[in-house]
C-alpha cells in the first residue's frame, strides 16, 4: 500500500464501513440504513463483492437522521429536514456574498 492509498483511507468520503459496522456504530439496524438510503439521504458505495460501504461523512448524516427519528420524527420527514438543512447551509454564504456585493456579481447575470 502506498502512502497516498493510506491517506485516502483517512478521508471522510472513503467508504470504510460495512453496513453491519455502520449500524453498530450508530446503535441502529441495517434496516434503518436501508430506509435512509431509500429516501435518498445517503447513497452507500458498493464493494467489489456488492456489499454496502459507508463513509464517515455518511455516518454523520445517518446519525443526524437517527437523532430526529429518536425524537419522534418520521424517517421520511427526517431525511427531508436534513436535505433542506444542507441546502440552507450551502445557500447562506452565496446569499451573504450577494448582499455584500449588492447583487452586482450575480452568476445568472451573464445568462
Give a written overview of the molecule.
- The chain is mainly alpha-helical.
- It is built from five helices and three strands.
- It has helices at 3-8, 19-26, 30-38, 56-70, 75-101; strands spanning 17-18, 45-46, 52-54.
- Strands 1-3-2 form a three-stranded antiparallel β-sheet.
- Strand 2 (45-46) and strand 3 form a beta hairpin.
- Helix 4 (56-70) crosses helix 5.
- It is globular and about 50 Å long.
- The mean pLDDT is 88.
Give short descriptive properties of this protein.
111 residues; three-stranded antiparallel sheet
**Strand content range:** 5-15%
User: For the report, how would you describe the main beta sheet?
Assistant: 3 strands, antiparallel
Total helices: the number is: 5
Helical/strand content category:
mainly alpha
Mean pLDDT metric: 88
Unreliable stretches (pLDDT < 50, length at least 5) are none
Radius of gyration: 18 Å
Strand order of the largest sheet: 1-3-2
What is the 3D form? Answer: globular
H and E string = HEHHEEHH
Distance between the termini: 48 Å
Helix proportion range: 55-70%
Query: Can you count the beta strands?
Result: 3
Amino acid at each position: 500500500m502506498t502512502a497516498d492509498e493510506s491517506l485516502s483511507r483517512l478521508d471522510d468520503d472513503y467508504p470504510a464501513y460495512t453496513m453491519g459496522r455502520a449500524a453498530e456504530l450508530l446503535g441502529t439496524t441495517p434496516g434503518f440504513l436501508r430506509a435512509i438510503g431509500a429516501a435518498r439521504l445517503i447513497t452507500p458505495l458498493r464493494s467489489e463483492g456488492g456489499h454496502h460501504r459507508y463513509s464517515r461523512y455518511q455516518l454523520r448524516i445517518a446519525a443526524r437522521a437517527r437523532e430526529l427519528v429518536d425524537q419522534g420524527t418520521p424517517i421520511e420527514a427526517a431525511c427531508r429536514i436534513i436535505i433542506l438543512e444542507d441546502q440552507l447551509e450551502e445557500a447562506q454564504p452565496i446569499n451573504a456574498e450577494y448582499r455584500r456585493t449588492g447583487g452586482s456579481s450575480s452568476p445568472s447575470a451573464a445568462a
